[in-house]
Write a structure and sequence with these properties.
disordered N terminus; about 210 residues; single chain; seven-stranded mixed beta sheet
Length: about 210
């Protein structure tokens, strides 16, 4: 199947190049760990979903942890079996400096998810989640959803943009319910709007693979 991509949008190579080290004054990793009303609301949204769907002892993988705000909030709430993939080494350096305990207690892999996902054992993680990360994956990276569907034993939790109003060259909205239904991962909860995130974002929770 040939993936047709909007010529005005970033391809996978350019997207990865940008996110390794954003150089346009936006997406500074420090912005993700400051205390603000918006980020406190995002934290609350994350924790409310995890409280309902994830056990404290579950092995959890975050795709795109940036400077570690989500990991920090999960760690503080008692989730200690934490791992993450992050493409930006400078973002991980910010985590080391400002959230050293979370960095020490979590397993962080630096690299693009496209490069890392195939190396992950299908028995390793109970829960795979992302927040405002999949929105930045171009269509040529859609194959990773099959990998995620295979490698999350219990749940997949996505807080991702789905609205067409996201017009940035770095935004690629999708209907994740449709994607994961085709991969036999049934949706068990949908939350919209999501406090702390734009109205184009939806939280979807997918359960174990349907046989």
């Amino acid at each position: 199947m040939t993936i047709i991509q909007d010529a005005t949008k970033l391809n996978a190579e350019k997207a990865q190049e940008y996110w390794r080290r954003p150089n346009d004054g936006a997406n500074n990793p420090l912005e993700y760990i400051v205390d603000s009303e918006r980020l406190r609301a995002r934290n609350a949204s994350l924790l409310s979903v995890f409280e309902k769907h994830v056990d404290r002892e579950d092995a959890i993988l975050e795709i795109g942890c940036n400077a570690g705000r989500n990991l920090h909030n999960l760690w503080a709430a008692g989730y200690r079996n934490l791992s993450a993939v992050e493409i930006s080494e400078p973002a991980v350096d910010v985590m080391k400096q400002y959230l050293p305990t979370v960095y020490r207690d979590s397993k962080i892999t630096i690299g693009a998810i496209e490069d890392v996902i195939k190396t992950i054992s299908s028995k390793r993680y109970d829960v795979i989640f992302s927040m405002a990360v999949m929105i930045h994956l171009p269509p040529e990276s859609d194959w990773i959803f099959k990998q995620i569907a295979r490698k999350a034993k219990k749940k997949i939790i996505l807080f991702e943009g789905e609205g067409a109003e996201d017009t940035s060259v770095r935004y690629f909205p999708r209907n994740y319910k449709r994607i994961f239904a085709r991969l036999k991962r049934p949706q068990i909860e949908q939350i919209w709007p999501v406090s702390g995130l734009p109205r184009s974002y939806v939280c979807r929770v997918f359960g174990p693979r349907a046989e």
